[in-house]
Amino acid sequence: MSKTLLIIHHTPSPHCHEMFDAVLAGATDPDIEGVDVLRRPALTVSPAEMLAADGYLLGTPVNLGYISGALKHAFDSAYYPLLDATGGRPFGVYLHGNEGTEGAERALDGITAGLGWERVAETVVVSGKPAKTDVERCWNLGATVAAALMA
């Protein structure tokens, strides 16, 4: 039986899109078997999709030092249904911010800790245009979280 990795993203800029593409490429690497990758914009992901997923990748720009309103909306809509049902599920995060990402990192740490999710990869934080090494880190993030679902 395959597992589902849900990528919940807010991708308003070319830099965020480049990061998203790299995360998706890593998560869908042909060497990773038995993992279906579902991708949903943060404003349209449903609580049912979040509940049904076996693992998560979260991507957002950092706006004014915080996660995007779109990603916050996704969690506001699904938090209570997820609260007692998704503990221990693996996740990873990628952030794009031009300055001061600490508030966004703190917010996601608090949300995911409250849900009891298990971080399986280091958060990828990129400022400005993603460099080749940033794109590689995003690819590795996608592959790592997807691979965590293979076990």
Automatic annotation (TrEMBL):
InterPro entries: Flavoprotein-like_sf, FMN_Rdtase-like_dom. It holds the Pfam family FMN_red. One of its GO terms (molecular function) is oxidoreductase activity. Residues 48-126 form the NADPH-dependent FMN reductase-like domain. It comes from the Bacteria. This is NAD(P)H-dependent FMN reductase.
